[in-house]
Design brief:
By secondary structure, the chain is an alpha/beta fold. It has two domains: 41 residues; 197 residues, Rossmann fold (3-Layer(aba) Sandwich). It is 40% helix and 15% strand. It contains nine helices and seven strands. It has a five-stranded parallel beta sheet, with helices on both faces. Strand 6, helix 9 and strand 7 form a beta-alpha-beta unit. The longest helix has 20 residues. Bound molecules: zinc ion (ZN) (2 copies).
């Protein structure tokens, strides 16, 4: 090994040792203390548990593939569909460690959570072997101005930036916008909330996106209606393909 690299590595270790002395690293999930080097944000036990739920899934409907199926995978239902409807894939079910991390992502402004979830998302995408760079841009699901003010930033944007960096795709935060609602979502009745996503989105004026294809990223898919209506407005403007990717599926 090159001597300078060796020295550099030792310096790094020393640096993290000192840093860890003052700011000890804890597992994002179980809060156990972590070794100071190499820097990680999940302990081995939690990481293994989280990754046990990640596998090859159908590229259209996210159905889990059997152990013998290789990526890229299309399930029996989706293989013969000529025009597959909306494509929605999720890293895993909204439960356990993933649920805990996403919950913290929303309500805790800890960067380590974003880093951890971005890495999980990237590992999931690499496993699926999707041809990511055929897409023109990645769009983070826009959040309302009120929510942005409450949280300070859109955490999904951070994860999108990592995806864009890895696959060399453009990040587009401008095309899709949330409409401004005076009444916050929680104040709406269940019926109102169910029909509300329909008019929640609008496109940036004069955006020429005909024939383009996009990846839309959100944290949790529940009924899928938000993703559906966000995609619909893109399709209505002539977009040829939308792939929705979420961290978790709460269906
Ligand atoms: Zn842990
Ligand atoms: Zn399928």
């Amino acid at each position: 090994m090159n001597k300078t690299i060796l020295l550099h590595g030792q310096f790094n270790k020393f640096f993290f040792f000192i840093l860890n002395f003052f700011f000890p690293l804890q597992c994002c999930n179980c809060r156990n203390y972590l070794p100071y080097y190499p820097v990680k944000h999940l302990c081995d036990k939690c990481e293994n548990e989280l990754y046990a739920d990640i596998c090859v899934v159908c590229q259209v409907c996210s159905k889990r593939a059997g152990l013998n199926n290789e990526a890229p995978y299309l399930c029996g239902d989706c293989r013969f569909k000529k025009d597959p409807p909306l494509k929605i894939i999720s890293v895993a079910k909204y439960e356990g460690i993933l649920k805990n991390l996403i919950h913290q992502l929303k309500y805790n402004l800890r960067e380590n959570i974003s880093i951890t979830l971005a890495r999980v998302m990237l590992d999931f995408l690499k496993l699926q072997k999707i041809q990511m760079n055929k897409y023109d841009a990645v769009i983070p699901m826009p959040i309302s101005k009120v929510k942005k003010r409450e949280r300070g930033f859109n955490q999904i944007e951070f994860i999108c930036r990592k995806i864009c960096g890895y696959y060399n795709i453009e990040l587009n935060k401008k095309i899709l916008k949330r409409k401004y609602h005076k009444k916050p979502q929680v104040a709406l009745s269940r019926r109102e909330r169910l029909i509300n996503p329909q008019n929640s989105f609008e496109l940036k004026k004069n955006s020429n996106i005909k024939g383009k294809s996009f990846i839309l990223v959100d944290d949790v898919k529940s009924t899928g209606s938000t993703l559906y209506f966000a995609s619909k407005i893109l399709f209505d403007a002539g977009v040829s393909e939308v792939l929705c990717i979420t961290l978790a599926d709460n269906a």
